Amino acid sequence: MLLTSMKMKNSSNPQSNNVLTIFIFVFFAVSLIFFLYTLYNLTVRTTGYATGYVNLTVNTAITINVTNDTVNWGPGTVTAPNTNASLVTSGTNAGTATRGNWSGTNAKALVVANIGNVNCSLALSGTKTAATFFGGTAAEQAYQWNVSNREVSSCGVWGENSMKDTWATVNTSAATVCNKLEYHTNMNEMHIDFKLVVPYDATQTGALSDVITISGSAAI
User: Fold this and answer.
1) Is 57's pLDDT higher than 60?
2) Regarding beta strands 110-114 and 189-199, do their DSSP bridges make them parallel or antiparallel, or are they unpaired?
3) Lowest-confidence region among 11-15, 96-100, 129-133, 197-201
4) CA distances from 17 to 29, 74, 113, 150 (A)
5) In the chain, what are the domains?
6) What is the rounded CA–CA span in Å between residue 9 and residue 25?
7) Contact present, 92 and 109 (Cβ < 8 Å)
8) What pLDDT is stored for residue 90 in this prediction?
9) Do 145 and 175 form a contact (C-beta atoms < 8 A)?
């Protein structure tokens, strides 16, 4: 038997294999980049967010409101043989007049309220003394006021205690009666009551009046 020996010849080209390998590598690199780009877009679209802001500034405001700004006694005289007459307000109740014929129907305390948004101090002053208001016999006259809380705890810290719930001579220079007037609703109002003792021999006649200045500033 004739045996023929055959030897297979390897006809593959090394250079061709290298080119193919590079081509495949480039293909996968491009595919990977495209995949990552697609994934990034999807991530941004599904998890992206934006932010916004709301800005404002709230200023502090000290605002004093006088809801009852006039104490009006109307006309009247001292009833003889008395040497004076006392006219006294009492909060929001009608005032009373003794030893005189003033009606007092519209004579009620001034009502002061802190309607701002911070606590404040409250100072008071008038422009007249009893002598310049009425004239006449000094011993038979007086011009006084009395400051009190209309609502409980409105004045958290008192200043000039001489007029706190008691009669004191009206001052012509500003006196801080309350160092801390609250601004919260239902605890921000005060009364300023007045007592006028009119002498029988008053030299000032006709319509008499005084101006009360009420000022608010930062709480002490």
Assistant:
1) yes
2) antiparallel
3) 11-15
4) 18, 121, 97, 103
5) 82-218 (2.60.120)
6) 29
7) yes
8) 95
9) no
